[in-house]
From TrEMBL:
Superkingdom, natural source: Archaea
PROSITE patterns per the UniProt record, alphabetical: RECOMBINASE_DNA_BIND, RECOMBINASES_3
GO function term, MF aspect, one: DNA binding
Domain Recombinase: 173-278
Matching Gene3D superfamilies: Putative Large Serine Recombinase, Chain B, Domain 2 (3.90.1750.20), Resolvase, N-terminal catalytic domain (3.40.50.1390)
Protein known as: Recombinase family protein
Residue intervals of the Resolvase/invertase-type recombinase catalytic domain: 19-165
Length: 310
């Protein structure tokens, strides 16, 4: 198999022979001019003309997220790359191709095995040369390092909030309001509703039944929506109602956050898990019983064979 054309030295002859697939993407249908599909394609075509490369294909994904590769035209692009229908994938900017640089590195490695390189018009990304691939990996490494640092700072921030028992967002659970300093205080009417939900569940032993009762009373969730079994379950599972505050890796008991008693919470948990326990009982059959059942089945089968022979 001949060496991919773009791996040759960057002479004008090598550039003239390169076939290019242009990829453009927008994340919304009303993307601003300058980021539009047509504008991305236009800039790429102009760049190909400058380099002497031939535009062989144009792939456009409109209103598609770049967080993964589950995009219709992007998948077609990858399939065409595997079949070596072109030499270079060109895009206006790397985040049009992939939101994650680590993912972009994986994709670059994948398409390179098929003799296809990547080229960004606005960035120093050109994997059609050894120097370009080296630079691409340096950019990717720096970006991943920055992402890791952001995640670390975020975790540190969450931990600082948690140590002060502050709520990390603006949507506290049902039963609470968020103070100006970030801590929670009980919201009397909502706290009463939480207690009622626990009591109703112990009576009905059914989340859908509790949701139906709440909707019948025209009671809504904290977000103002109708109740459903899942919303009821979210309340019943939340250990903050017994004062267990958990954010990140911080788990502490905060007495002033308590709404229901431990006994009520444990009884509700036991009811919720009753089917799991019954299933465990069914699946944990004693060996003696298993042996007896098998022997009974064998005896029945022998009797059937004997009656059949008669």
């Amino acid at each position: 198999m001949s060496e991919p054309r773009w791996r040759a030295a960057h002479s004008s002859e090598a550039q003239e022979q390169s076939d290019v697939a242009i990829y453009a993407r927008t994340s919304s249908r009303n993307q601003r001019f300058g980021y539009s599909l047509n504008e991305q394609v236009r800039v790429c075509i102009e760049h190909c003309e400058m380099l002497g490369w031939t535009v062989a294909f144009i792939y456009k994904d409109e209103a598609e997220s770049g967080k993964d590769t589950d995009r219709p035209m992007f998948q077609k692009l990858l399939r065409a790359a595997k079949q070596r229908h072109f030499d270079v994938i060109m895009f206006w900017k790397l985040d049009r191709f992939s939101r994650s640089l680590m993912h972009a590195v994986q994709l670059e490695t994948e398409v390179r095995t098929h003799g296809v390189g990547l080229y960004s018009v606005t960035e120093q990304i050109d994997t059609t040369s050894a120097a370009g691939r080296f630079n691409f990996r340096n950019i990717a490494s720096a970006a991943e390092f920055e992402r890791d640092m952001i995640q670390q700072r975020t975790q540190m921030g969450l931990r600082a909030l948690a140590l002060d028992h502050k709520w990390p967002n603006d949507q506290p659970p049902l039963g609470y309001a968020k103070r100006a300093d970030g801590t929670l205080r009980l919201e009397k009417s909502e706290a009463e509703l939480v207690r009622e939900i626990f009591d109703l569940y112990l009576q009905e032993r059914s989340m859908p039944a509790v949701a139906e009762l709440l909707n019948g009373r025209e009671t809504t969730t904290k977000a103002g929506n109708r109740w459903c079994a899942r919303a009821v379950g979210d309340v019943l599972r939340n250990s903050i109602y017994i004062g267990e505050y958990e954010v990140g890796d911080i788990v502490e008991t905060v007495p002033e956050y308590r709404i229901v008693d431990d006994d009520v919470f444990q009884r509700v948990t036991a009811v919720r898990h009753r089917f799991r326990r019954e299933k465990e009982k069914r699946t944990s059959m004693p060996a003696s019983r298993k042996e007896r059942i098998v022997n009974e089945m064998l005896d029945t089968y022998d009797e059937y064979l004997q009656s059949y022979r008669c």
